[in-house]
Amino acid sequence: MHDQDGRESRKEAREKDRRIMRTRGMIIEAFLEVLRQKEYADITVIDIAEKANINRSTFYAHYMDKDDLLHSMTQEKMEALKRLQSVSPKSGPADSVAPAFHQPDRYYAALFEHLAEHERFYHILLTKQTPANLGQTMQEVLKESFYKRIAALELDQKLQVPIDILLDYIACATQGIIVKWLDNNRMYSPHYMALQLTRLSLLGVYKAMGMKVEQS
Q1: The model's pTM
Q2: Which of 54, 112, 160, 185 is a good FRET partner for 12, with 20 to 30 A between their CA atoms?
């Protein structure tokens, strides 16, 4: 009897969790659609609730206000970005050898797959002015990811340029390409983008331009 009650309780809990996730998903999609059409400062909870086809009390059951919603959405995506550094489903342990010219770096591959999966969120939040300041936050996450990679490989003593300049360069360049890619409706596939960034990293800017680089 107790086992049956326990199973029923767990089933009810799972169903409740699914309802919560479904409602939050509706709210998030509604918010993104409203944000696509209006500036953040002009958006009200009523706007979001009406777009999601829910009442305000339902919205407030999940979020305190639109700022709380924005913070929750952004934090969730940034935490997912931070986890990408450890994503290597088909790779062994990382080492200090650069990837092959015809093989995308596993981090870039995971990054662009993530961006493609959540394209709407990133496209809207990277082009709209909001308190979340996603562009700056994303740059910091990218810098952190590459710094951890350098530190894990113990490459910091082998760097040819100061690490702060290197990380700023990588993060800003990567984000700039991401924004352009999303603006162009993902003209190229995630795999293709990951491969091109890998090749740019391997070649360096001058070699990628076709210039001859003399070895010192």
Answers
A1: 0.84
A2: 54
